[in-house]
From TrEMBL:
Residues 20-47 form a coiled coil. This is ATP-grasp domain-containing protein. It comes from Roseovarius albus. Keywords: Coiled coil. InterPro entries: TPR-like_helical_dom_sf. It comes from the Bacteria. The keyword Coiled coil applies.
Length: 480
């Protein structure tokens, strides 16, 4: 377990005290100058951050009724309306402020997220790319006494989406597709954080390139970001001598088909045959291609570059395959994977997850289900009703080597050596004949505390993972 008191949301809670102090001062200033629009918007910002949304909304709408807002005021009000869920009003305020200048980037990112929410994906991508060219570096946290970490993302390999937090009610811009989140990994007490949205073919001005102590590539999907990785590697040379974690050259090798080829030869490892097959829109031709490539039903199919099982389906026969292909109009390629029936002797399907952080193994979860496709939602469909499944997870978390056995545990470390990333995860199970069956191995895996309150025995292990990742960064920056 981690030797420090790391807990979820630690960064947010450390900001709350200073926010409340600032709120009190802003209230006092506004009482002395009630017509000051800037102060009223500043007050609304603090109220939103503290979760007092109804009160914030009243202040923002009072401002938007003013006839002559300047450009800065329109932007502040537009961003607040976005956070409060009033998207049409936000675009109405933000749109006229955009003039193709560096200061337009944040408004463009917000409009991009709104476009994505309403499925204008082309417009969303164009706005995000333009924002990334105007201002590629976003300074999130700044303190001269701390090392600076540069988080690198691919602007063209992802979207920003407008997502309402069900707990707080606040709408945020969340990166969608192809990247892993560092929200529960990096402590703002230890580091400055700069985000770099990279665009293929665009080189930032030398005066804009910040001085950093370490680079963390958060682009994690070799399919959606793969075409951009050579350019990313070239751009990273601008930061000569700065260590890079999860270098894009290594991430590019973690696509499902490449993993199947290079991991399947490891002793005691079973990685089902996986191929990326092109699709020209003719379903019958694709079925013939499956046969020519030696695939038979049942099989698993998905669209490359997608995660969380959104496009995954197990196809039992050619009729199901035809229905699936017709439903995926516009897709031009699919991953096809041999189906391996991995139901255990108790009649359950299981999936374990582990992370490797700086070379060390960390257990994350051990899920059980009555379905071959296992997700965290099975905790509430199956595991909260069957105590034996929770006991199984506890055994995995508390002593993974004993739970898995020495051969499988060693096989996981052999996979680590082949993958060669400073951070990545493996989803797997152990077959009835004691082989490591890998579902996927890459860095596109969330680390979160979503279920820790309902399954409290998982919390210490999740805290350890957060601590381990932050410690890796501290070590690479010479802090430990």
């Amino acid at each position: 377990m981690c030797p420090v008191n790391w807990h979820p949301g630690v960064n947010k809670r450390r900001k709350t005290k200073s926010l409340r102090k600032h709120l009190s001062k802003t209230y006092a200033d506004l009482r002395a100058d009630r017509e000051n629009i800037e102060l009223r918007l500043e007050l609304a910002q603090s109220l939103v951050k503290l979760g007092r949304l109804d009160l914030a909304r009243r202040h923002v709408f009072r401002v938007t009724n003013e006839p002559d807002l300047n450009r800065h005021q329109r932007r502040l009000a537009g961003e607040l309306l976005f956070k409060l869920g009033h998207h049409a009003q936000a675009v109405k305020l933000l749109g006229p402020t955009i003039k193709g200048e560096k200061g337009d980037a944040d408004a463009l990112r917000t409009i991009s997220a709104i476009r994505c929410k309403y499925e204008d994906f082309l417009g969303a991508r164009q706005d995000l790319v333009l924002a990334s060219k105007l201002d590629p570096f976003i300074h999130e946290v700044s303190n001269d006494n701390r090392p600076t970490v540069l988080l690198v993302r691919c602007a063209e390999g992802c979207f920003l989406n407008a997502v309402r937090d069900m707990e707080t009610g606040i709408t945020e811009r969340l990166r969608k597709r192809g990247h892993f989140s560092t929200d529960e990994f990096i402590s703002i007490d230890d580091f400055n954080v700069i985000l770099y949205d990279m665009v293929k073919g665009f080189t930032p001005s030398p005066e804009d390139i910040p001085k950093v102590d370490m680079i963390l590539n958060t682009a994690s999907d070799g399919d959606s970001n793969g075409p951009l990785f050579p350019w990313m590697s070239e751009m990273l040379e601008l930061f000569a001598g700065v260590p890079v974690l999860n270098h894009p050259r290594q991430v590019a090798k973690t696509t499902r088909d490449r993993n199947a080829l290079r991991l399947g030869n490891i002793p005691h490892v079973l990685f089902p045959r996986t191929q990326n097959l092109g699709y020209n829109g003719h379903a019958l031709s694709f079925l013939n291609k499956l046969k020519d490539e030696g695939f038979s039903f049942p099989l698993i199919i998905r669209i490359p570059g997608t995660q969380t099982g959104i496009t995954v389906k197990k196809l039992e026969n050619s009729n199901e395959a035809l229905d699936y292909l017709v439903s995926k109009e516009g897709a031009d390629e699919f991953y096809v994977t041999e189906y391996v029936d991995c139901k255990n002797t108790s009649g359950r399907y299981t999936k374990c997850r582990c992370f490797f952080i700086d070379g060390r193994f960390y257990p994350v979860a051990g899920l059980s289900s009555d379905c071959w496709q296992i997700h965290s939602g099975d905790r509430y469909r199956i595991m909260d009703k069957e105590p034996d499944t929770q006991e199984r997870e506890k055994r995995y978390l508390s002593d993974p080597e004993d739970f898995l056995g020495p051969e499988v545990f060693q096989a996981l470390h052999d996979v680590r050596d082949v993958i060669g990333l400073e951070f990545f995860g493996i989803d797997f199970t152990v077959t009835n004949d004691n082989r490591l069956l890998i579902f996927e191995a890459n860095a596109s895996m969330r680390h979160n505390f979503d279920h820790a309150d309902n399954f409290p025995y998982t919390r210490p292990y999740l805290e350890t993972i957060s601590w381990a990742f932050n410690t890796m960064l501290r070590r690479r920056c010479g802090l430990t």
